[in-house]
Structure formats: structure tokens, C-alpha cells
Amino acid sequence: MAHICETKMIIFLLLLVSPSYGFLDGLYCGLENCYEILGVTRDASKSEITKNYRKLARKWHPDMAAKTEEKKKEHTEMFQKIANAYEILKDDEQRSDYNYMLDNPDEHLANYYRYYRRYAPKVDIRIVIAVSLTIISVIQYWGSWNNYQTAINYLCKEPKYRIQAMGIAKAEGLISSKKDRKDKRSKAKIRNEEEEIIKKVIEEKMDIRGGYSKPNIKDVLWIQLILSPYYLVQYIIWWCRWAWKFWICREEYGEEEKTYLIKKYLKASRSQWELAKEEDIDEYMRKELWKREKFDVWKKEKEDEMKAKLAESARYKSFRRYMKKGGPGQMTFGPE
Q1: Residues 60, 79: contact at Cβ < 8 Å?
Q2: Are 212 and 151 in contact (CB under 8 A)?
Q3: DSSP symbols for 144-164
Q4: Residue 49 near residue 86 (C-beta atoms within 8 A)
Q5: What is the pLDDT of residues 256-314, one digit of tens each?
Q6: Contact call for residues 177 and 170 (beta carbons, < 8 A)
Q7: Residues 6 or more apart from 99 whose CB is under 8 A from it?
Q8: Quick count: other Cβ atoms within 10 Å of Cβ 140?
Q9: Hey, CA dihedral for 135, 136, 139, 141, is it positive or negative?
Q10: Do the beta carbons of residue 302 and residue 294 sit within 8 Å?
Q11: pLDDT, tens digit, 9 for 90 and up, residues 60-80
Q12: What is the DSSP annotation of 114-139?
């Protein structure tokens, strides 16, 4: 019994130290060596490989086989092996990949990648980038247009905007305040036409700003990339002008510069600023929030005010108790 165990251990160790010859079934020449199939050495030149291939192809061509089915099958299989080996070794890139596999037999994933990458479709990376940018731009524009239509439909139902739009339509004679007896249209048709007029008035006469504003073709990614050199030059000019006027010449800020600094300190995007209330903007200007020290004081006051409101909020108190008890990770057994 001990002798059998010792024998098994020796066989296992031999398997561990046995060399890997780098032949993978399904890759290149399978479990055979392409050089040996053509009868050439690894250092053989292209002319030697071609010469041996032609010699072996004539010998093993199926037409040269005897008329028996067994011989024809043997010749066909051998001819296919020879042709496959020649296709691999005649191409410099594929031969280099094959030699890499022979030298690095343990890198199975790398060898599979090198083999199958030749069969991957060759697509120009510029085409891939252009198509990707086009798809992103289309989705971006479609999303903006969908948001805009959603906002228009909402404003058509909102009483405040609907009444205002109705007043504009009547003032311009788009909607008649009195019903004409000669008008033979049905009530449903009249209502639908009025809805379209109201929608058109809201689109043309009322400004919808922020994230639901009317989409602009200049905002899509493709156009932004095309115009990026122009924007870069504009930014450099703006920065140089700012540095000269306000850092070197020490000029007073104008309305535009004050607004820019306030937006910067608030970290507000263009759409967020457009949605800001007029009274809030007036407050920012009145408190001179373009000055950093005054902005920091105002921000601290707002944070303290928010904390005080939260401290008085019963809902926030309940949330704090919930977090003290462990938050989302706590175990609960029904209401307290």
C-alpha cells in the first residue's frame, strides 16, 4: 500500500515539473507543430517555407491519392494541415504570434487573444468615435427636447400661465371671446384648437428658463467639440481682460463681474441661476456677496439658520434618533 502511494506521489510530481509545449487545441496547428508539419526549422526563411509547402502539397494533394476512400481521406486531412501551416507561417505577423505562443506556453489568455484578434472586424477608431459622439449628441438633444415639451405641457395646465396665455391670445385676436353662431366646428375641435393656440403662445411669448428651456443645437456634444477652440480663445481673452482690469489696474467690478463672482461662490450652474428668483438676486447684490468675506459671513448665517429650523423640526428629530440607534443597519421589530 505504501509502495502504491509513493508511486502516485512520483507521478504527481512529474506532472508538476513536466514542460508545457505551448500547443493548444483549436489554435494555429492544434496539438502539432506548424514547422514540423512543413518540415522546416523555426529559422527557415519565407522561400524555404514556400518551397517545402509546394513540395508537400503536390505529394499530399487529394488527386494524387489512390482511389480508395481511406487514402483520399488521409490525403485530404494531411493537405489541409499543410495548407493551414503554410497560411500561418507565410504571414509575418501571424508567424510572430505563433512563435510567441511557443516561447510563452503558459500565457493561455494572451495566446488566445493574439490568435482571435486577427478575426475581429477591422474598424477605424475615428469612425467608432464619430458614431459614439453622434449617438450621444442625438440622445442629449432628444432628452432636452423631451424636457422642454414636458415643461410646455405642464404650463398649459397651470392656471397662472394658462390665464396669462389666454389673455395674450385674446388680445391678439387668436381666440375670440364671443362664440360665432356661423362657426360650425364642434366643441371638441374648438377646444383642441384653443389648446394648440395656448401652447404656441406659451412657447413664443413666455420664457422657460433653466433645465427645461428650449433646446439649442449649440449645446449638443458634437457642436461643443467643434466650437471648443473658439470657446478656448474666448476664455483666454476673458481671463487676460479680467487679470488686467481687476488685478493690475484695480478697477471696480461692474454688474456682469459681480454676477459672475456670486454665481462662482454659490457654485450655481447656468440653469440654476436662471431659475433663481429676482428677490434672491437683489438680496445677493444688496449684501454685496461678490466680496468673498461678506459671502462667507452670509453663508455661515444661512447654515446656522437651516440648522435651527432642522432642530425645531419634529421629523428631523425623529431622523436623528433613528440614526443614533444605528441608522439603516439597525434591526427593528415594528413601530416603537
Answers
A1: yes
A2: yes
A3: HHHHHHHHHHHHHHSHHHHHH
A4: yes
A5: 999 999 999 998 887 778 778 889 999 999 999 999 999 999 999 999 988 888 777 77
A6: yes
A7: 42
A8: 16
A9: negative
A10: no
A11: 888 887 678 888 888 889 999
A12: HHHGGGS----HHHHHHHHHHHHHHH
Can you tell me the distance from the alpha carbon of 281 to that of 262, in angstroms, rounded to the nearest whole number?
9
Instruction: Give the pLDDT mean for 315-323.
Output: 70
C-alpha cell at 330: 439597525
Which amino acid is residue 48, in one-letter code? E
Split at pLDDT 50, 70, 90, the class of 234 is very high
Farthest CA pair distance, the chain: 116
Residues 178 and 192: their CA atoms lie apart, in Å, by 17
- Which residues, 6 or more positions from 11, have their beta carbon under 8 angstroms from its beta carbon? none
CA distance 107 to 88: 19
Determine contact, residues 38/85, Cβ cutoff 8 Å.
yes
Q: Which of helix, strand or coil describes residue 257?
A: helix
CA 299 to CA 297: how far, in whole Å?
5
Q: Residue 260: how many CA atoms within 13 Å on its side-chain side? A: 8
Identify the helix (H) or strand (E) that includes residue 17. Answer: helix 2-17
The residue among 83, 93, 41, 35 whose CA lies nearest residue 62 is 83
- In the chain, the amino acid numbered 39 is G
- The pTM score is 0.53
